[in-house]
Each structure stands twice: as C-alpha cells, then as structure tokens.
Amino acid sequence: MKKEPRKKKSALREWGESILIAFLLAGCVRIFFFELYKIPTTSMVPTLIPGDRILVSKFIYGPRIPFIGIRIPGYRKPKRGEVIVFISPAERNKAYVKRVIGLPGETLEIKYGSIYINGKEVSLPSIAKNFYYNFGEYGEEGEKIKIPKNCYFVLGDNSASSKDSRYWGFLNFKDILGKAILIWWPSKRIGMIK
C-alpha cells in the first residue's frame, strides 16, 4: 500500500498560526512576567521624568490574573524604597507609579520634610534625598499614621506635585501590579531604577 502524500499547509495558514502563537506568548509574558509603562507626570522627578518608558517586573511580587484579580504567589513582598506600579485607590482605571515608604504594621510620620517610621528617621538614600511636604489628609503635620495589615504607604519623589498616600490613604497589596526595574527609553536615560 502506498501512503498518501501529506498535504502541505498553505503559506497563509502557516503565517496565521505563527502570528497567533506570537500573540499568545506575548500575552503570557505581559500577564505573568513583564509589562511596559510610560511615565505621564512629574510626580516621580528626578527618578522618573515624563516620557520615560519603564519595564515593570510582575513575577517578583506575584502576577495578578486579569479579570478575576487572584494573585499568584511571588518571591517576596515589596520593600521600603522600591518603586512600584499599582492600581490607584483614587482612580481605579489608572496605573500609578510611586515609591514604597511605609510597610504593613508600621507607624509613619512626615516631620520637617523627612519620613519617620516607628519614631526613627528613615536614612535610606532613595527616601532621605527627598523633601516630603505635609499635604493631604494622611500627611498632616504632627499626624502619626498606623499602616494597616497588608497595606503600604507610598509617596512620589516629587512631593510637591504628587497625589499619593497622603491624599488617598493606604495601598492594598492586592492592587500592586509590579516593581519598576528599568528605564528602557529614551536611550540617554536607560538604566536601573533606584
């Protein structure tokens, strides 16, 4: 018995399958590993400036599965001083980028432009280099704020023009999208985010 010759796929079908596989792989990378964002405002100057394009790692804290909001466990929780991207508690349809200042269970105070955690001034260079104004309901002078369990206090490096935890309160861990790790464009600003 002779075997029937296998039919060759058409070039159009091969291209279509290749494109579909590429889209699926890109979607998986975007959902579970990395995502790109563009900085629109001056709230993180001088660390990030308008027009910077950043790479955000999702797998460090654990990616969120779209539409159902379940988070796959990551390597660790956010640390003080890290720059993160998150869904804003004030505007649920927007992603914000800010720096983690206070961790769950800590008491935070903004005093004389500096951050005090549990009564001690924070000396971490990424935080201590900035002047923080006593703006907003959660940033009033003399106000000691207890950060709830599983929540974070985040601020923009450019405190004078940042709508952050001082205004809308605490950021729940479930709303964190990932850690900003790299400026990838424009070419003269390429580098790790500190």
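The above is record 1. Record 2 follows with the same two-line structure.
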Amino acid sequence: MSFAYSRHIHFRDTDAAGVVFFANYLALCHEAYEEALAAAGLEISAFFSANDLLVPIAKSSAEYLRPLRVGDRVRITLRPEPLSANSFAINFEITRLGSPEKIAARVRTEHVSTSARLRERVPLPAPLAAWVGQA
C-alpha cells in the first residue's frame, strides 16, 4: 500500500543556503509517516500508549538528488515494507511538483517494534501489521 502526502517547503525547513537542510528530509518523511498512520485510522498517541509500544527508527538512509527550496510544492510518497514479525521499513520518495515533476530524494527508514516497559522487541500489533502489509 502506498500513501501520498503533499506540502510546501517552509522557510524553517531550509538552511542558510536557502535549500532544505539534509536532516530535515527525515523530518518531512516522518511527517508523512504520521499522516499515513492517521489516514489508516491509527490515532498515534492513543495507539502507542495503549499498546505499550515504541517503534524507533533503527536505520535510515537517504539519497539526495536535487535541492528543494522555500515555496516548492512536494509530494512525499511512502510504501511500508515488512521485514520480520517485529520490524518494517518505509520507502519514501520526495518529488518536487511542477512542470516537470522531479524526484528530489529517496529515503528509507527501518523500524523495530519494542515494548516501552520491557525495552525488548515485540511482534507488531495487528493494526500496525495490517498497515505494513503483514496481515
């Protein structure tokens, strides 16, 4: 299942050179991830607290293909990918909209389902597993 999220690049996203600061690509992707979970009916704060769950990012990688600037309109497309019973990846593609559309970055994050109380890996809860595509 893929999900698309659109937004403008804001001044706060950029650095002194006027382009999106490299670490903010991860922030943009995380924003899209939260929107995707909400669109799937997972109310984030209630879901995670009710399930004694943390889902930290264990690994990330990014490929920066072209700069993004203030005012650019972007679409962030994400595709979750199951990795194991307690982990998944999300593949993001950030596209600068306009004529023509251009892919600005590809980002991948890998997440591990962890008990907040025990601090050890646990299986993905059913709603999250369904969102990832494991159910």
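The domain at 3-132 is CATH 3.10.129.10 (Thiol Ester Dehydrase; Chain A).
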